[in-house]
């Protein structure tokens, strides 16, 4: 079973680390700040394997360059967003193998907060950036209300144990 670690960043954000069930490899989701990730990884003897990005806002991508410089990581992100640090653009697709230490991921188009926003689903864990979070959903910052509503409907259709 995957382990999920929430690393606090800024005043109101989290960077998610998805740890392999097999080893110390971790996927880093939306690293807006590299410092807290580096501290957590070093403290827990983890091995960064890749970075997953949901959208282009700095509080989700600001730490990528530093992490990539330090660990030389592949960076996966939305095909329809302009993120210079993404070297593997993704689009909605089931059964995407992102790294050999992890089960297949499902990539879901979840526009609304931004026009090209994506989410990642793995083992009933959804990493949905600013599409949905505790207490609400992301503001419209480039996407439309209709897109966000449709994206929330996609999430609503996922199994209850997601």
Can you characterise this structure?
By secondary structure, this protein is α/β, with parallel strands linked by helices. It has helices at residues 34-43, 58-61, 64-71, 145-156, and strands at 3-9, 13-19, 25-29, 47-52, 75-78, 88-90, 93-96, 105-109, 118-122, 125-127. The strands form 2 sheets. It has a 6-stranded mixed beta sheet, covered by helices on one side. A hairpin with a 5-residue loop joins β2 and β3 (25-29). The chain is globular. The mean pLDDT is 96.
Short description:
The protein is α/β, with parallel strands linked by helices. The chain has helices spanning 34-43, 58-61, 64-71, 145-156, and strands spanning 3-9, 13-19, 25-29, 47-52, 75-78, 88-90, 93-96, 105-109, 118-122, 125-127. β1 (3-9) and β2 form a beta hairpin.
What key phrases describe this protein's structure?
single chain; 162 residues; alpha/beta; 6-stranded mixed sheet; 4-stranded antiparallel sheet; 4 helices; 10 strands; 21% helix; globular
Mean pLDDT: 96
Distance between the termini: 14 Å
Give the ordered list of helices and strands. Answer: EEEHEHHEEEEEEH
Proportion of helical residues: 10-25%
C-alpha Rg (nearest Å): 15 Å
Counted by DSSP, the helix tally is 4
């Amino acid at each position: 079973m995957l382990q999920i670690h929430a690393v606090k960043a800024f005043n109101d954000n989290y960077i998610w680390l998805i740890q392999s069930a097999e080893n110390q490899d971790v996927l880093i989701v939306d690293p807006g700040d590299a410092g807290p990730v580096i501290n957590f990884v070093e403290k827990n003897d983890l091995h960064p394997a890749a970075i997953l990005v949901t959208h282009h806002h700095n509080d989700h991508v600001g730490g990528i360059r530093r992490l990539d410089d330090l660990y030389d990581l592949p960076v996966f992100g939305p095909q329809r967003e302009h993120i210079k640090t993404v070297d593997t653009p993704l689009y909605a697709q089931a059964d995407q193998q992102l790294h050999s230490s992890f089960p297949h991921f499902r990539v879901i188009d979840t526009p609304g907060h931004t026009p090209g926003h994506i989410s990642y689903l793995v083992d009933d864990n959804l990493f949905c950036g600013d599409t949905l979070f505790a207490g609400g959903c992301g503001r419209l910052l480039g996407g439309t209300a209709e897109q966000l509503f449709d994206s929330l409907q996609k999430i609503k259709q996922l199994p209850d144990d997601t």
